Backbone:
């Protein structure tokens, strides 16, 4: 895995660290049961990259890791302590944060962090109590949403039985959430459609092992820079390329062919099915489309003009690799003596 990151470090542009961060996260996502060595290596790579990357890259990394069950504690705390625009999806849905860390984050971070934690489905009584206390402390008797003073009487621990006390805390928390404006649901991103000729080229390049041409064709299909296509192919797990193929709605037979030829280990059969089939079955089309759209945004798609690829574009006649485009070398002029006919000295 470290060799692949050395290759990524050669990428040109001002967002090299963003690319490496997202590649690190994607590779870690592909590990279903990471070993201790994998967790340690991921922690060593992620912590400095996350601190040095852009906000958009950090937001995508946090959103991706919110679905992982095995996230190192230092990584989870670093993401949870980030600005709320970055940490919100991780705090609201990550199964890797334990109750102790959630309580610590609720008490040490902003009220927005506490409200993100309150959206979780598995709130314990201790966590609910910490969230309510954080809300009361932040308000200071002032309802920020309504702009008026409210009464928040303290509840002595001995005044109510534990069951009633927990229920009161839950009601307070629900009231707090009702005052929080709901976020609009994200719309499904639209990606370019793949015409049959490009689909056939992707399959052909995969069969021939032409990795560079496959990356160029993939970049042309996405309307992105060549560096994005190279990054997708450099992911030796095949997870990124599989995500793109699903998002582009390529036929299932083409997806399996491309993945199996480009990553031979995905052609291995497990219980009657290939690894490529198992990987594709685990991917959701809507989630893949959203992830690819975020990759395009991070790569700055709108700020670049897609490169014309000689073997795909209209300037094919200018391709220097085609025969017949080079002038025949001129024959050197013979000396005057050599031009004389034999015997006419």
Residues:
């Amino acid at each position: 895995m470290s060799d692949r990151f050395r290759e990524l470090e050669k990428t040109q542009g001002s967002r090299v660290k963003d690319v490496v961060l997202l590649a690190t996260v994607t590779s870690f996502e592909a590990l279903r049961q990471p070993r201790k060595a994998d967790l340690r290596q991921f922690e060593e790579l992620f912590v400095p990259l996350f601190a040095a990357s852009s906000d958009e890259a950090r937001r995508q990394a946090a959103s991706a890791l919110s679905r992982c069950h095995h996230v190192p504690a230092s990584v989870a705390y670093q993401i949870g302590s980030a600005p709320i625009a970055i940490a919100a999806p991780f705090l609201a849905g990550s199964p890797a944060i334990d109750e102790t860390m959630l309580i610590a984050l609720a008490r040490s971070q902003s009220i927005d962090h506490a409200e993100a934690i309150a959206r979780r489905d598995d709130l314990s009584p201790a966590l609910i109590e910490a969230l309510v206390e954080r809300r009361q402390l932040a308000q200071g008797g002032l309802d920020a949403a309504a702009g008026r003073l409210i009464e928040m009487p303290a509840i002595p621990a001995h005044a109510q039985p534990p069951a009633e006390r927990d229920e009161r805390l839950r009601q307070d928390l629900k009231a707090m959430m009702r005052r929080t404006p709901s976020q609009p649901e994200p719309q499904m991103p639209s990606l370019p459609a793949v015409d049959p000729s490009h689909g056939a080229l992707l399959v052909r390049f995969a069969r021939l092992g032409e990795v560079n041409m496959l990356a160029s064709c993939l970049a042309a299909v996405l309307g992105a820079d060549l560096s994005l296509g190279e990054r997708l192919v450099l992911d030796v797990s095949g997870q990124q390329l599989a995500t793109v193929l699903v998002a582009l709605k390529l036929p299932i037979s083409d997806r399996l062919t491309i993945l199996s030829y480009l990553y031979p280990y995905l052609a291995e059969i497990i219980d009657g099915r290939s690894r490529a089939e198992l990987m594709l079955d685990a991917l959701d089309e809507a989630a893949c489309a959203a992830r690819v759209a975020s990759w395009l945004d991070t790569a700055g798609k709108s700020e670049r003009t897609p490169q014309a690829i000689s073997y795909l574009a209209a300037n094919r006649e200018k391709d220097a690799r085609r025969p017949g485009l080079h002038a025949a070398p001129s024959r050197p002029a013979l000396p005057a003596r050599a031009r004389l006919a034999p015997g006419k000295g």
In short: DSSP finds 18 helices and four strands in the chain. Residues 61 and 314 are 38 Å apart (CA to CA). Residues 196-310 form one domain. The beta strands are 142-143, 148-149, 269-270, 273-274.
